[in-house]
Write a structure and sequence with these properties.
With 247 residues, the chain is of the alpha/beta class. The chain folds into two domains: 3-94 and 208-244, P-loop containing nucleotide triphosphate hydrolases (Rossmann fold); 112-203, no CATH class. It has eight helices and ten strands. The protein has helices spanning 22-32, 72-80, 112-122, 127-141, 156-167, 186-202, 213-219, 237-244, and strands at 3-15, 35-38, 44-57, 61-65, 87-93, 96-98, 174-178, 205-209, 222-227, 230-236. The strands form two sheets. It has a six-stranded mixed β-sheet with strand order 6-7-8-4-9-10, with helices on both faces. The protein has a four-stranded antiparallel β-sheet with strand order 2-3-1-5, with helices on one face. Helix 6 links the parallel strand 7 (174-178) and strand 8. The longest helix has 17 residues, at 186-202.
């Protein structure tokens, strides 16, 4: 059983020497959508998330919506453990898997086969598990003889197919996505869609940030609308979609 609990969670980013950089801090405010504040020592900080309280449980398929800079990516990185809360408490029960950056760790000088082990290790997979899956990964990614060639010789499509195939062999209890993945030509996209749908079906909790109304309605049963780092609305998918997209 997987569960995520946020209680009054905030995330701050310090801006060093911010007091002497009024133009820079103004630009940061515009770029991030965050709130500029100062701490007790007068140091400038950007509050990216403020006062987030919610619970996610098994079978939740949660869409995260909001304008650019609303805090969607910060929330995903907080869930994945890249960021830590500045205030409040976060409790996560269950293994977390991320499809936010599927090319992370790919070595362009190493072969495709070697990169399967590198990327697999970053995903927390043992060598034995990778050994069990490597033939399927190579077949799925349609690399053929290129599996033993350096990745620098690959086309961009081959690179993405390899990264996608490796990243989707994991079956985490909690799956994080920043937009729905769509890779390769039309034929591969259909194959990738089926694989991704199967992965989503098997995961206990899905959290996906997206700008697509269609994807939200197809994939999610609930949505959280962020605005300037705060929760504006947290409700069933149809209600949030209607309010956010002004239906």
């Amino acid at each position: 059983m997987a569960k995520i609990e946020f209680n009054n969670v905030s995330v701050d980013f310090p801006i060093y020497n911010g007091n002497s950089r009024s133009l820079k801090t103004s630009l940061i405010k515009v770029a991030t959508g965050g709130q500029l504040n100062t701490d007790q020592h007068g140091n400038v900080k950007v509050r990216a998330l403020e006062g987030l309280t919610f619970t996610m449980q098994d079978k939740d398929r949660v869409g995260i919506v909001g304008h650019n800079g609303a805090g969607k990516s910060t929330l995903l990185r907080l869930l994945s453990g890249v960021y830590f809360p500045s205030g409040g408490t976060v409790k996560i029960d269950g293994e977390v898997g991320s499809l936010i950056d599927i090319s992370l760790g790919i070595d362009h000088e190493a072969t495709g086969r070697e990169n399967i082990y590198i990327r697999g290790s970053l995903l927390g997979l043992s060598k034995a598990v990778i050994n069990q899956n490597i033939d399927e990964i190579i077949e799925f990614s349609e690399l053929g003889g290129f599996a033993d060639m350096p990745v620098r010789t690959y086309s961009s499509g081959m690179h993405l197919r390899l990264a996608f195939a490796v990243s989707t062999i994991v079956h985490p209890e909690i799956l994080l996505m920043d937009e729905w993945l769509s890779v390769g030509d039309e034929g591969f996209k259909e194959k990738a869609k089926r694989r991704l749908n199967n992965l989503v079906h098997k995961t206990n909790i899905l959290v996906i940030a997206t700008h697509s109304k269609e994807q939200l309605l197809q994939t999610c049963n609930r949505a959280i609308w962020l605005e300037h780092g705060r929760i504006r609305m947290d409700d069933e998918i149809n209600k949030v979609a209607a309010a956010y997209f002004h239906d």
